[in-house]
Amino acid sequence: MTLYLYNTAHRKKEEFVPMVPGKVGMYVCGPTVYDFAHIGNARPVVVFDVLARLLRHLGYDLTYVRNITDVEDKIIEAAARNGESIEALTTRTTEAYHEDMAALNALPPDLEPRATQHIDGMIRMIAKLIEKGHAYEAEGHVLFDVTSMADYGKLSGRNREEMIEGARVEVAPYKKDPADFVLWKPSTSDMPGWDSPFGRGRPGWHIECSVMSEATLGVTFDIHGGGRDLIFPHHENEVAQSCCAHDGAPFARYWVHNGFLMVNGKKMSKSLGNFRTVQDVLMDATGEAVRLCMLKTHYRKPLNWTDYGLDQASTEISKLYVILKDFDQVDKGPLKPNPDVVRALCNDLDTHAAFLKIQDLGKQLRHETNKAEQSRIKGQLIASGQLMGLLEQTWQDYFQKRDTLRLYENAWEVRISDEEFTIKPIPEPSIQNLIEQRNKAKAEKNYPKADEIRDQLKSHGILLEDGPGGTTWKRA
Ligand code: AMP
Ligand code: ZN
User: Which atom of ligand 1 is nearest to 37's Cα?
Assistant: First the structure.
């Protein structure tokens, strides 16, 4: 089946034809490891994980590279703020990142280069750029000379004024042109730094990806991805560095960018403070529900994150596991994804349409009476889900995990329909959680809320007793 991808470089959907038949190289900009990832940061990971799964399903021999930016000013600042060494901070946050992404069923990339392992390559590329007249030294810095490249701005389609606007934060007196960007900057003795022909210093962020992509995938490779905020300046600057260092040889052939995850109409970001970490959200929903919530919206569209949307996704994924539970006795047929699901994904990763088809398969299975057909559909359902990183666990594991969630007060209730769920007593973690919420409401003098929680528990046969040692509970 032919894969079509929207290529930011040409602003249109294009047939994907790899450079070398049967082989694909894909580079996705990874995290700067200074803090926990928020769910906005997880969106590209989930999106490109689906693309990786699809490419492999289509038979391509894929090399998927996602870097770790472990040298950057935000890291230096965060380490100083935490009173922690840079090494300890980057190790701790990289491990947390791996755990968070695994919880969202994102498979690890094939290669995960770290910027600090490629400093020599960065120094070499910078030296080459100076030699070829594309970069210059100034006050301990090395800057890329944007006027030396006729096509600068082509990827993002920005004109000069817009580029200068975008680069405003980096305005500095030693720049020849306000749009020039940093390749190397000086480090004081207390900062991470490496000796180089341009003095002791550290690389700029953009050069890191130019060098790590070349080291892992070569000068020209197939797909480069990331969130759309990276188009300018990060990806524009990667193109400039790589093309100029290699005498105009093409860099990435397909540029794929995901839209933003939003909160109340604003991009979720650390700087706006409107973020929720992956770890926090995972206390309210399973990783699979979070993943589905992301994939129900097409990757290029903005995705407004709401509790309601997450709840919907939780219900939808639960429904599918209920069906698998009900058809537990049926052997699953060949694990072949449904062609409509593959077709939808091949249409610029239309995960929305693909999931509608998966739901449809669930319905078909529910109403099918012929055993052989049940088997076939069950195999298709599971394989189709797995192509999107869903339905990878047993229904037992899924429900066990789901019922321990923090805010899943209703997990024991009939959430889908009477025939699909058996009523279970409210689990203890949920009781404790509600008691904590009630204590918090009382501390905030929000008595109506505290009473509401007491009544809610009562409706589940749980009676509360407030005593000097705190609140205890018993089943009525
Ligand atoms: P950062 O660590 O900020 O460089 O971001 C890592 C990745 O997350 C990049 O690909 C960003 O484009 C992406 N990203 C950051 N915030 C969001 C958001 N709110 N929605 C979607 N992607 C985002
Ligand atoms: Zn990058």
Answer: 2
Mind listing the pLDDT tens digit for each residue in 29-73? 999 999 999 999 999 999 999 999 999 999 999 999 999 999 999
Give Cα separations from 275 to 146, 261, 270 (angstroms).
34, 10, 6
CA distance 18 to 40: 29
- Ligand 1 binding pocket (C-beta < 6 A) is 29, 31-32, 40-41, 43-44, 226-227, 229-230, 258, 260-261, 267-269
Say which ligand is closest to the CA of 113: 2
Say which residues have a Cβ less than 8 Å from residue 239's Cβ, sequence separation at least 6. Answer: 151, 154, 155, 251, 252
Question: Is residue 405 within 8 Å of 283, Cβ to Cβ?
Answer: yes
Between the alpha carbon of residue 186 and those of residues 137, 141, 192, the distances in Å are 11, 6, 10
pLDDT of residue 34: 96
Domains and CATH numbers, the chain: 4-258 (3.40.50.620), 263-416 (1.10.730.10), 425-475 (no CATH)
Q: Whose CA is nearest to atom 11 of ligand 1?
A: 227
What's the gap in Å between 38 CA and the centre of ligand 1? 9
Nearest of 22, 29, 4, 475 to residue 252 by alpha carbon: 29
C-alpha angle 232/238/239, rounded to 5°?
95
Ligand with an atom nearest the CA of residue 72: 1
Taking the centre of ligand 2 as the mean of its atom positions, its distance from the CA of residue 208, in whole angstroms, is 7
Residue 61's closest CA among 27, 21, 30, 29?
Answer: 21
- Of 32, 43, 293, the residue with max ligand 1 atoms within 8 A of its CB, to mutate for a pocket test, comes to 43
Gap from CA of 30 to ligand 2 centroid (Å): 7
Among residues 49, 35, 184, 168, the alpha carbon closest in space to that of 107 is found at 49
Residues 6+ apart with CB under 8 A from 220: 19, 249, 250, 251, 252, 253
**Residue 421: per-residue pLDDT:** 36
Q: Which of 418, 427, 415, 419 lies closest to 316, judged by CA? A: 415
Q: Cβ distance 347 to 4 under 8 Å?
A: yes
Task: Give bridge partners of residue 13 from the DSSP assignment.
Answer: 6
**What's the pLDDT tens digit per position in 115-136?**
999 999 999 999 999 999 999 9
Pairing of strands 252-258, 221-227: parallel
Task: Pull the structure tokens for residue 416.
Answer: 């889908």
Per the DSSP assignment, residues forming a β-bridge with 258 are: 227
User: pTM of this prediction?
Assistant: 0.86
Pocket of ligand 1, candidates 41, 67, 206, 271: which has the most ligand atoms within 8 Å of its Cβ, to mutate?
Answer: 41
Contact predicate 89/75, CB 8 Å: yes
DSSP 26: E
